[in-house]
Design goal:
Layout: H1 9-13, H2 18-25, E1 33-36, H3 42-51, E2 56-60, H4 63-75, E3 81-85, E4 98-104, H5 113-123, E5 124-135, H6 142-151, H7 170-180, E6 182-197, H8 200-209, H9 211-217, H10 222-238, E7 240-241, E8 245-259
Parallel strand pairs: 1-2, 1-4, 2-3, 4-5
Antiparallel strand pairs: 5-8, 6-8, 7-8
Length: 263
């Protein structure tokens, strides 16, 4: 999904996914770690605990997200974290600098995925690990189907560079990563809920801010918009659970690979 620039939304939404990332990344003390699309820095700080006294570099294109990440990192007194504003597709990383690269749903929006992963590969040492979480197909993600269903005919296909499902095809993504310089690829099927929050009014405003939702609503007239928003509210209410708030099923791939020894 492509959400508004909401610093804390993703961390709460994806909390069930964190254990899968932590179990897979195999970070050791003194490792140098790159966190791609680090957002508000939760995954960066978790990596920093495992890597200390090694350094973790978090990269994101959102200055607002990075501001929140820096605040949280300072409050928790991490001394081994650095945040950089930039697009991992074009960012000039030092070559052979990192032992591990991780990303929690931060690699699906590259304008040129082949160039992006090739650039990431240059930042990794030979045999360095790559660990990614990416969404599976829209059809396999309840949250996407529910929102598109409420939007009806106004729902739009994502534009290039804004498609949360751009890496959903495991075979195509494996070929992409192999051409970029990775091998030893594995795809693990992850099925975990996503949590949107307890206050339906707040959740509704967040969902309306999703890029695809806002684009669809912009195509409608006033009355049509009101009806679509009411359908969204009804969908959220159907998926409300007293204990967890609004909850949807989701499917993702946990991808692990290594930087090829071949340059």
């Amino acid at each position: 999904m492509s959400s508004p620039d909401c610093p804390d939304f993703y961390d709460a939404e994806l909390r069930a996914h964190h254990k899968h990332l932590r179990a897979a990344y195999g970070i050791s003390p003194r490792n140098e770690v790159l966190d791609i699309g680090c957002g508000a820095g939760l995954t960066t700080r978790e990596a920093a605990r495992a890597a200390a006294p090694g350094r973790v570099v978090g990269v994101d294109i959102s200055e607002r997200m990075l501001e929140r990440a820096r605040q949280s990192t300072a409050a928790e007194r991490f001394g081994n974290v650095v945040y950089q504003l930039g697009d991992a597709q074009t960012h000039q990383f030092a070559p052979d600098a990192f032992d591990v690269a991780i990303s929690r749903f931060g690699t699906m929006f590259f304008a040129d995925p082949a160039a992006a992963f090739a650039n990431i590969a240059t930042a990794l040492r030979p045999s360095a690990r790559l660990v990614l979480l990416v969404w599976q197909r829209s059809e396999d993600n309840e949250w996407a189907q529910a929102i598109d269903g409420a939007l009806g005919d106004a729902a739009q296909a994502p534009s290039p560079g804004a498609d949360p499902f751009s890496l959903s095809d495991a075979e195509a993504t494996a070929r992409l990563l192999e051409r970029a310089g990775f091998d030893g690829l594995r795809f693990e099927d992850v099925r975990e809920p996503v949590f949107y929050g307890h206050d339906i009014d707040d959740v509704l405003e967040t969902v309306r801010g999703f890029q695809g939702t806002s684009a669809a609503l912009a195509t409608l007239s006033g009355d049509e918009t009101d009806r679509a928003v009411e359908r969204l509210r009804e969908v959220l209410a159907v998926h409300y659970r007293a204990e967890h708030g609004v909850v949807f099923d989701s499917r993702s791939w946990l991808i692990t690979a290594r930087r090829s020894l071949r340059r």
